[in-house]
Amino acid sequence: MGSRASSLLREEDIEEIKKETGFSHSQITRLYSRFHSLDKGENGALSREDFQRIPELAINPLGDRIINAFFPEGEDQVNFRGFMRTLAHFRPVEDNEKNKDPDAGEPLNSRNNKLLFAFRLYDLDRDDKISRDELLQVLRMMVGVNISDEQLGSIADRTIQEADANGDMCISFSEFIKALEKVDVEQKMSIRFLH
Amino acid sequence: MTNGGSTARRPKRRGRKRGSGETNGSEGEVGGEVGAEEGGEGGGTGSVEDAGGKGKSKKDKDKDKKGKKKKKGKGNSSDSKSDSEESMSAGELAALMEAVDEKKKLIANLRSKPWRMKRRLHVLREAQEFVDKFEGALGKGKNKALYAFKIMMMKKWIKFLRDFENFKTACIPWERKIKEVESHYGSSVASYFIFLRWMYGLNLVLFALTFGLVVIPEILMGLPYGAIPRKTVPRAEQPTAQDYSTLMDFNGYCKYSVLFYGYYNDQRTIGPLKFRLPLSYLMVGIGTFGYSLMVVIRTMANNLDVGGGDDADSEFTFSWKMFTSWDYLIGNPETADNKYASITTSFKESIVDEQDRQKDENIHLRRFLRVLANFMITCTLGGSGYLIFFVVKRSQEFATRDDIGWYEKNEVEIVMSLLGLVCPPLFETIAELEDYHPRIALKWQLGRIFALFLGNLYTFLFALFDEVNNKLDDEMQIRNASIWFTKEYYANFSRYNNDSEATPPPINPADAIRGPCWETDVGIEFVKLTVSDIQVTYLTIFIGDFLRAFFVRFFNYCWCWDLEAGWPSYGEFDISGNVLGLVFNQGMIWMGAFYAPGLVGINVLRLLSSMYYQCWAVMCCNVPHERVFKASKSNNFYMGLLLLILFLSLLPVVFTIMTLPPSFDCGPFSGKEKMFHVIMETIELDLPSFVGSLFTSLANPGLIIPGVLLMVLAIYYLNATSKAYMTANNELKKKMQMARDEEKARRNNKDSTNEVMKDLEYLLPGRGWEPDPEPEEVKEEKPAKKTKVKPGAAGDVKVQKDVSLASENPNGKGPVTKQPKKSKGPPKE
């Protein structure tokens, strides 16, 4: 499995991915073999069905949205670069990470970018605001029919009321950040990709 | 390597090293340091005024230390690059190198930082420790191999510890079951099962103690059944000894078995190991209480850590629940269902909490109603107490008469059962006047039923000790009778055999006259009580929950009114009743374990079966509460009740050990004046003589009274300290809350919510003298906010009664293959 998969991945590709995402060499090769094992169609790209074969995503109420986050706008296939780009959000944050390239911008796994990833899961129409309807959709997915619509509406109103700072009845990204300020996002949204 | 060698030979004194040829960074560092030194000295003296002369000398020390460190560091950094990674991967090594470099840079730039001396010293010490620790990893030359080995062993050890922790967590029994109950019924119902599991653990330890140290030695090394009178069924009872009804009453063979006190022999040592059984019996009896006390108090202390810090998350509760509640590591569909249900339940709990917070009614009416309710309940309790007292007195009268019917014989039990059935629902109905949050209402209910059951306990103990006193009176007579009987037997024997030399055969144990053996009788009473308690509980669950649910489910089709929505409908899990049952049961066990060692074993079996049975019953026949509420973070209320019962059950046993004389012919203490004389005997005979004199001198009142005084003072001091900490905690919380409110108000660009700040703001210059428009604005917003909030809290919405259990996770049915809708239109209004 390992040798065959890595033969399809060239050194320059690995170097580029390393620069872009910050993963190490061994991590990239390991993730490539995982990518390869998911890719049943053997065409070097993953489709939505491939993702839905993962049990943890299948039973997750927000599973579809997570899968959607892998695919760039309007496309149905994601190649290895895109796969790694999304996974880079979940790399653990290191304290002594020296910014090797000051103008490379924020690394993909910074707290801000992690929160942005999470924010985009809820903000379906990409207008940088989570509206009440979007909240209702998420609530409906999370609790199903056990709570009445009125109560769900009240919960959504209450959530907006808690987080909304400028009174526009929507949660913007900065309000989202403020609401989750005390949550240890760096630790919770990180997967320890073992060496 | 040559570079490293040359740096080693440099003079140690000042940091003015021309570090050539190492890393680029360190070159710059040296230059920087030299420059900083000159500047630093002047700046240092200027800034750190209070340190004064001290500061200067410390700085000199710093320079020396830094010089040394820099030398070593530089020497090693050149070696690091040529290292092979035996124990660490390249990534870790690189990261480590970076860290060490960073620390060294910090040490170098420490002077230029505008900090106080103390802080600089602290940082310096830390950085030096760090560099010390890890420079070896980068290859320190001499003991590099040893260091690498150490690192590897440490890693293996950490991995082993982690695996062990995982194993320990996996060993916790019934975790999945309890999680299932928790997700469907809320944390309050689950807290009962957690309490049950904790009790099971406690009883298991007591069982191990009792059986291991008392029962097993007696079985293995003691005399077998039938060898001596106390171990044999008397001749009179032998025909019926094997009957089912006698065994059910714990007479017959049951009574003369290891289960009860009377079986044990009073031989000082038994078996080849010279096991001191009477001593062990007494010690285990006392040790049971000691261990239970320790465990209860330790659990209470642990639970105190959990509470507090609760107010910190009262700010974004709903947001957090929405955005962070799913656990993305779940892969098992069943677990996903549970998690799904638990999210639903947790939303409902938050709704209840919110409702409670939004209430703002007439305080006076509420207070009046509460006083009224308490008054009514006190009257009821007083009435029931008097009724019990009256009935017990009457039963004493009846005991003297002979023409009593069935009702009079069982009057006490009937009255107590009736009270137990009628009063709790009555309390609940009256408690509706009080309108508390369900969590607090549960506590009040528990407290009141506890007070009611104390009446039960009082009658039981009263009756018991009455019987004991009677038996003690009998005992003197029987003792004389049995001595006389033995003498007669020998006299007859020698008369009939005409042979004064032959020793008579020993009296057949079954024929000897027996004393009343009141301890065994007391033990039998406790065992009977426990068994009947078990039967009643199981039957109640079966009839009250299972048959009721069965009836409601299947007879609903052919009934006039809707059984599920109206009466009787499905039952809710009765937390208070079950918890109190558990607590009182444990009290019985504690009291009875001294007189019947087998009781602990029976209790372990009972708790084990109860766990499975009740988990099944809850999942199968109950519905979640209408208002699902979160259990209080700490279990301390249950523990407090348990502690109270522990003390209450300690008293009779201690009284028995200290004052009552043991039976003369049964049990391990027969023949002694008081039970605790075993200890004195052991001290005299088994321990060296000086220990005996030590104990005698320790028992001197002159030593004990100061000891007690010291303990009282310690308690007072600790109490005062903890109160001080609590006040400090509260102050800090208040400050934090005020800061948060200020933040929010400032963010919202509105007036401050705090009255004091509002006043102050008016005094600020530039505010002008028009306070009037502002308050009106505030007032207008406030009512607007209010109406928005009320529906937001779902306070007006009728909370539906969930008849069906939580529906399944829709995603659990399999992957959804259709693509999600791509909404590209304009943003929503």
Automatic annotation (TrEMBL), chain A:
Keywords, sorted A to Z: Calcium, Cell membrane, Cytoplasm, Lipoprotein, Membrane, Metal-binding, Myristate, Nucleus, Phosphoprotein, Protein transport, Repeat, Transport
SMART domains, A to Z: EFh (SM00054)
Location of the protein in the cell: Cell membrane; Cytoplasm; Nucleus
Keyword Repeat included in the entry's annotation: yes
GO MF assignments: metal ion binding
Record domain EF-hand: where: 26-61, 110-145, 151-186
GO biological process terms, semicolon-separated: protein transport
Pfam families membership: EF-hand_7 (PF13499)
Family stated for the protein in its record: Belongs to the calcineurin regulatory subunit family. CHP subfamily.
Annotated protein name in UniProt: EF-hand domain-containing protein
Organism (species): Coilia grayii (Gray's grenadier anchovy)
From TrEMBL, chain B:
Residue ranges constituting the TMC domain according to the UniProt record: 517-632
Main location: membrane
Location(s), subcellular: Membrane
Topology within the bilayer: Multi-pass membrane protein
Transmembrane helix listed as a keyword: yes
Listed Basic and acidic residues bias regions: 740-761
Gene Ontology cellular component list: membrane
Transmembrane portions of the chain: 198-221, 277-297, 371-392, 446-465, 588-608, 637-660, 698-718
Family matches, as InterPro entries: TMC, TMC_dom
Start-end of Basic residues biased regions: 9-18, 819-829
Entry superkingdom: Eukaryota
Region (Disordered): 1-90, 740-829
Keywords in alphabetical order: Membrane, Transmembrane, Transmembrane helix
Family: Belongs to the TMC family.
Name assigned to this protein: Transmembrane channel-like protein
Organism of this sequence: Coilia grayii
